[in-house]
Amino acid sequence: MVIEICTTSLSSIINAQDAGANRLELCENYLVGGVTPNIEFFEKSLEISKIPINILIRPRGGDFTFNNTEFNRMFESIQKFKNYNISGFVVGFLDNKNQLNNTLLSEFRSATVGYELTFHRAFDYLTEQEKSLEQLIENKFDRILCSGSKINSENGIKNLNYLNSLALDKITIMPGGGINIKNFKLFKNAGFNEIHLSAIDKRISLDSNYDIIKEIIEMSQ
Q1: Three-state DSSP state, 58
Q2: What is the pLDDT of residues 80-133, one digit of tens each?
Q3: Angstrom distance (rounded) from CA 30 to CA 9
């Protein structure tokens, strides 16, 4: 099972890889749900990381309905990060009807040829998810990160299982949102091949916690 850790600090990266995580989603500003990392933080992360990094491309916090200027910034960011040794990108967006624009999907896939491409939790806000799933498959996205359109993945497990039954081997459904030590086996037993979590204990810090990740890695074996 692939364990992806959302990391927003250098300490998080060290804890994730030392605990045995398989992949990082790199971003900044955890409290707004993550935005594109700045280049200085990214370069330091790349020096430290021994495991694959996927970069979140999100120009701001808030909703996922972006204007043309924001989309241009997203494409510029992708081009900038392609100069480095990364594994992939994470993007997400929707139009004012909470649907996907097929032209934009195609443009993002064209801009990221040769890289993994994940569609993130903007998917949870889409109104026609079966249609959207097919659009993402058609545009050769690799995975969808979502919580089953609920506040967390545990509450959304029924929807996640349904999406997984539609996805088959055409695209990976990766549960994310509220996954922790207590509910991890729910997703393992349901047959998901990848999960996404921050592994943060807010009572301690906003860094990904080594002990949490280590325990989840051990349970995933």
Answers
A1: coil
A2: 999 999 999 999 999 999 999 999 999 999 999 999 999 999 999 999 999 999
A3: 10
Give me the helices (H) in 88-156, please: 102-111, 129-138
Residue among 102, 172, 175 at smallest CA distance from 139:
102
Q: How many whole angstroms separate alpha carbon 198 and alpha carbon 206?
A: 9
Domains and CATH numbers, the chain: 2-198 (3.20.20.380)
Return the structure tokens found at 203.
């009572």
Q: Which residue is listed with tokens 């998917």?
A: 123
Cβ-count burial 65-96 (b if 16+ within 10 Å, e if not): ebeeeebebbeebbeebbeeebebbbbbbbee
Q: Mean pLDDT score of the chain, rounded to an integer? A: 97
In degrees, rounded to 5, the angle at the alpha carbon of residue 77 between the alpha carbons of residues 2 and 136 is 50
Is the predicted pLDDT of residue 30 greater than 90, yes or no? no
86 with 47: CB under 8 angstroms? no
Encode pLDDT of 199-214 as tens digits: 999 899 999 999 999 9
d(CA 120, CA 172): 12
Please state, in angstroms and rounded to a whole number, the distance separating the CA atoms of residues 29 and 7. 10
- pLDDT (tens digit, 9 = 90+) per residue, 168-201? 999 999 999 999 999 999 999 999 999 999 999 9
